[in-house]
Design goal:
The protein has 186 residues and is mainly alpha-helical. It has 10 helices and no strands. Helix 5 crosses helix 7 and helix 7 packs across helix 10.
């Protein structure tokens, strides 16, 4: 069974209270939906994975040694589609104990990670708006290791493992996030 988008959002709000984290999950959902459309995959399934990928982040105190494993337990109890659970668990290879290997896993890792780099880039603009961010600025920031240092550039580059060049992935992600910029206050 797959949760409806509404049920998934209710579940997210049950476990995640930090507004910035909720906005990150909404941005990740938007990017995942855009990726699903581009690749001809199930937009609802991919969107829900993006929305719920950090479901357990507050429960585990963002501890990468276990992040994703609590979400896996919660989602199994809710009889969520095993592919969604797998992608969510595998977005954090550290806790999963295995490397990502599927298109869905790579898409979620790249898709949720690029949102952080895009938001960090927007934050240095005077208006702090995603609409002001140009793809070339994000690509340039990819090379600046000190900028948004916690953003794993290798995860973002997994877009290439699903057949999408970095420049195109950045544009797709910016367009997706711009589409919900009002909801996430950017």
């Amino acid at each position: 069974m797959t949760l409806s988008r509404e049920e998934a959002f209710e579940l997210l709000n049950q476990y995640v209270k930090n507004e910035r984290m909720i906005n990150h999950c909404l941005a990740s959902e938007a990017v995942m939906r855009a990726l699903a459309r581009k690749l001809g995959r199930d937009e609802e399934k991919w969107g829900i994975a993006g929305l719920l990928h950090d479901l357990d982040v507050e429960i585990v105190n963002a501890d990468l040694a276990v992040h994703g494993l609590e979400a896996e337990k919660i989602l199994k109890e809710k009889n969520v589609d095993p592919e969604i659970i797998d992608a969510i668990k595998m977005h954090n290879e550290t806790a999963a104990g295995a490397p990502r290997s599927t298109e869905f896993q790579h898409a979620l890792a790249a898709g949720e990670t690029i949102t952080g780099l895009i938001i960090a880039t927007a934050m240095v603009y005077p208006d702090r708006k995603i609409a002001s961010v140009k793809p070339k600025s994000v690509v340039k920031r990819m090379k600046e290791k000190a900028f948004a240092a916690s953003v794993n550039r290798e995860y973002i580059r997994e877009c290439e493992k699903i057949g999408i060049p970095l420049d195109e992935f950045v544009q797709l992600s910016l367009d997706a996030m711009n589409g919900i910029s009002g909801r996430i206050g950017m």
